[in-house]
Each structure stands twice: as structure tokens, then as C-alpha cells.
Amino acid sequence: MKVGLDGFALHPLKLDAFGLFEYCHRHGFDGVLLPGIRSLSAELETMHLAEIRARADELALYSNVSVASPNAVAAGRPEAEVATELSAQIQAAAHCGWHELHASLGAERDRYEAPVPWTEQMAASRRVLQTVAPVLRDHGSRINLENHGDTTTFELVRLAQEVGPQVVGICLDTANVLVFAENPVDAVRRAAPYVHMTHAKDAIVFFCDTGLQRQGRAVGQGCLDWESILPILGEHEPGLELSIEDHKWFFFAHIFRDDWMAQQQDLTRDELARTLRLAWQVERCRRDGSLPDPLEYEKTDYAEQMQERLLSGREYLRNLLQRLRLA
Questions:
Q1: Which residues are bridge partners to 200 per DSSP?
Q2: Domains of the chain by residue range
């Protein structure tokens, strides 16, 4: 396994792809999952796509790119149009040697606030993915969908199975599972056979008025059980790239609200109980002072802590991978 960055972790620096590569090379990371790139035909072409790949290879860094969301409903465009654009992006990426591609179906607002039910958005996304599946197969490529606060690991596993795991996989955000009250170890075990990319992220989860509140922490400083998580992932993908994605902001799992829980039909009582145990463990640490208070911790701007958090996470993962013989 390798330890790199998702470029969004460096968002305060406002770097382009070349700047992200230089930062990672300078600070000893193994590569970059390039962030925020949803249109290879527009932004990346103006940045000379082949030159971007060549520079990553020159620095011996792994690199990955994102393609457009297959969720035509969220995009407000015809499915055929989205499929055509996505096909062009798949081909452009493959031409530069990028075959494991990142995408997401939307964001939290698309699931909970959009006028079109999430089940219909998922169905539309599945149809687009089925349309581009031949293009993916022809180029030996796969779209790895992220659990981006919009889609549960249960849903992503079903989608990969329905379209075909050779062309649809998962980019697992290890801490985003908490915004669905999924237990991280359970979620990793469920998703691991389909995981080919990651956002390696840590967090704590604690109680609030509507249920659970999640706060990002440096990898190794949250409540995720990395000693259990990494061997599960490594069993299915020994060369998996762990791209650290770090940031602040609070996120919520409104488990005390009936309308919210109605959208979590897959979540079992047992798994929810294991997530609540994590929240109780965090609460005990807050009480004994061994964990910085989340509200006070959030007051410090991420930019001030960014490099320290990222380097700490890098060392934590590398040391653990060595100890687990997964490096």
C-alpha cells in the first residue's frame, strides 16, 4: 500500500495539479488523487493532460483523476448527454494511462433536499453507468464512486454488483461512513471487495441534539480502528493507494429524526449500536480531558494545522503499514 494525498487536503494553498505534485514530492507522499476535476474535456485539456501525467511519472508519484458524475438528475441534463461526456472523459484519461477513475453521485443535499427522490437519482445513475460500461471495458477502466455524504456503502456495493465490478468500483471515504451512522469497520468489510481507491480520513463522532456529529481529525487521531481497517482493505487490494483527505467542518447523522432514519433502511440495529459505542468512547475521552473539546478544536482554522495534520497522518499510516506488513 502507498500513502498519498487527495488534493482537496491542500485546498487552502490553491495549487494546480503541478503544484500538488511538487508539494507531495517535497513532503514525501507517494502520490495524488487530483481533486475537483469533473471535466477532462475542459479544465484538464487546458492544463495539458498528458503533461500532467508525465510530470507525476517523472516524480515517481501515483496520480488519479476524477470524471463527471453519472447522476444526470443532479446535473439537470439528459442521460444521453451525460453518458457522451463521460465516455469522452474515460477515453481521454485512458489515453494518459489513468484507468481507475474517481467520481461521486452528488452531495448530501442531493439525497435529502432535492425534489427528485434519491432512489430515482440512483436509478438514473445506474442507467448512465450501464451505457458507458462498454467504453470502460474497451479501455480497461473503472469508475470508482465515492460515498460522498450522498451514497451509503450498501448502495455503492449494490450498484457495483448491478453494473459489474469490472467497470464500477468504490472510492471509499473511511470517515464519510459516519454521516450515515455506519460503523467504519463494518462499512470497510462490506465495501472492501469493490474498493480500488480511497479517501483515507479520520474523525470523531459524538452526540448532539439530532443524533451524531462528526468532526474530522488527523489520521490516527480520531476514532477509526485503522489496525482493523487496513488488513481488510489489503486482503482485497494489496497495492491500494491511501489518499489522505483532510479538512475540518462538522457533519451530522440525524439518527434521532424519523425522516432521516427512513432513508437508512439498510442500517441494522447491531451496526448502529457499534457506531453509538464509538460515540460513547469519544464522550468518555472528552470527559477525562484526553481528547480536545470538538467545539474549541474547530475554532482553529484548518490552514493553520494543515501541514502538521497531513504529515502526522502520513507517518501514522506508514508506521502502521510497516507493522502490519502491508507496506
A1: 244
A2: 2-323
Say how far apart CA 130 and CA 280 lie, in whole Å.
43
- Give Cα 55 to chain centroid, integer Å: 24
Amino acid (1-letter code) at residue 176: N
**pLDDT average, residue stretch 19-46:** 77
pLDDT value, residue 312: 98
User: Does the structural domain 2-323 have CATH classification 3.20.20.150?
Assistant: yes
Residue type, 73: V
Report how far residue 6's alpha carbon sits from residue 198's, in angstroms, rounded to the nearest whole number: 9
β-strand partners of 3: 242
Q: How confident is the model at residue 292 (pLDDT cuts 50, 70, 90)?
A: confident
Q: What is the pLDDT of residues 139-198, one digit of tens each?
A: 999 999 999 999 999 999 999 999 999 999 999 999 999 999 999 999 999 999 999 999
pLDDT at 42 over 80: no
Give the three cell numbers for residue 212. 451524531
List all residues 6 or more positions away from 158 whose beta carbon is below 8 Å from its beta carbon: none
Going by the DSSP 8-state scheme, the letter that residue 172 receives in this structure is E
Q: Taking the CB of residue 300, how many other CB atoms lie within 10 A of it? A: 11
Residue type for position 117? P
Binned at pLDDT 50, 70 and 90, residue 45 comes out as: low
Mean pLDDT to the nearest integer, 99-106 = 96
**Cell matching residue 318:** 506508514
The total of other beta-carbon atoms located within 10 Å of residue 56's CB is 25
Long-range contacts of 113-122 (CB under 8 A, 24+ apart): 114/73, 114/74, 116/73, 118/150, 118/263, 120/73, 121/71, 121/73, 121/74, 122/151, 122/155, 122/159
Q: 37: which 3 cell numbers? A: 476535476
Q: What is the pLDDT of residue 37?
A: 47
Residue type, 102: H
Whether the Cβ atoms of residue 243 and residue 4 lie closer than 8 Å to each other: yes
